Each structure stands twice: as structure tokens, then as C-alpha cells.
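As promised in the previous annual report, we have extended the structural survey to additional targets. Below is the entry for Stage 0 sporulation protein A homolog.
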Amino acid sequence: MIKVAICDDDLKILNRTKEIVNGYKRKDLVIKAYKSGEELLKDDETFDIIFLDIDMGGINGIETAKIIRKYDKKVKIIYITNYTDYTSSAFGVHAFGYLVKPVDREEVYHQLDEALSYMEEDVEELIEFITDEGVVRIDLNKIYYFEYQSRKVIMKTIDEDHIIKEKISDIGNDMLKYGFLMPHKSFVVNLYNVKSVKGYDIYMMDGSIVPLSQKKSTQFRNGLNIYLSTHIDKGRKDKSHG
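The corresponding C-alpha cell record, generated without further manual editing, is:
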């Protein structure tokens, strides 16, 4: 059973979206509706998919999603918005897709099809590293960054830090295909866990700040934009369009 939440402070849109989702026949869905971000957050429940209005009174959709992401990294968040310019909203919340009001039945069903398809593929992608403790296997999404300091490379993860027996430049090259970039000669960061970039500071999801060198700034920002557009396009028909 797939659990779906719909959150919108416009009751007309809320009821319309609920009616459309309720008519989806390809999978059994359990649907709960919420009239505000506060109401959604107060309910002690996790969901597989959340349709979330961006422009709400009180806690808006962006802030609501940021709070949800602190305890749930896997839920597919599909924003409902009045606007077509939403790229900046992707920072820090890993939005799966977007629907522009008024919501269209075919687009809602397409988003559900896509979300369910990716849920079936959502398995941990483990990669092995040789560390001081021996060989460890780490889920890629749990890695924040690698840092070279005091003649050693430290891998910062959600759970604990590991000392890696490789050169930082070799790690940068090896991890490129997994969505990692070098913003600085001493760092390799996981773009999945980048919250925002301000000036020459990269803010990570764990609250740490990684330096962005002036020399690598343009290349890193371009790489991050491509990464973000690719992930936004997961919820679209053409996934390759940036």
C-alpha cells in the first residue's frame, strides 16, 4: 500500500488534487489531506509521496519540505505551484517533480507513474572504500564530502567519519560518475547533499560549510546546475532536458 499526502491551503485545489489522486487505478493508494504545512508536520506519519503546495500561509511548502527532509530522505515530494520558475526551490529538498496550477489529471497521473517507478528502483547504492579500519561499504547518499587534511583524506558521512587510503585527486576522479565534484583542491562533495551555495561557501545538509575556490567556482556551479536540472527532470517526460 502506497501512502500519499496532499497539502494545500486552497481547499478547492486540495479537493481537486485529492479527487484526481483517488481516481488513480494502477496502484492501491492511501490518501491523507492537510490544509497547512503545520498540520502535515504535526501528524506523526511518514509518506511515500507528498503533493505539496509551495505558496501557503504560515509555513510555506519550501520550509515544510526542509523540515520533512531532516527525518525522511526518501519521500517523493511533488510541488504544486502557480509559477513555472522553480529551479531555486530544488536546493536542499530534492524535489521529485512539479505541477503547475490548475492541476491536470494526466500530469498528476504521470507524476504518480514516475514516482512509483523510481520507488521500485530506490535501493541503496553501496560502494567500497579502503579505510584505516579495513574495507567498508557505504551508501552513496550518506556521504557528505571528502576532505584532505594533515596528509590524510577524511570521508564525512551521516553516521561516522572514515580515513580513506587514497589521494584526494584520485577520489575526485573516481567519484565524478556518482555525482561528486571538487569545489576546492582539498574537497570532493556529494551534490546530493548540497543545501545551497552562497558566494564562495557551500552549505551542506549536515550544516557544515565547504569552501568553493574562485578558480573552480564557474565549473562547480555549472556542474551543480546540471545535476539539479537532471534531478528535477525525474518527474518530467523528458529526463534529459536541462
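The radius of gyration is 19 Å. Residues 167 and 230 are 29 Å apart (CA to CA). These points will be discussed at the next consortium meeting with the crystallography subgroup.
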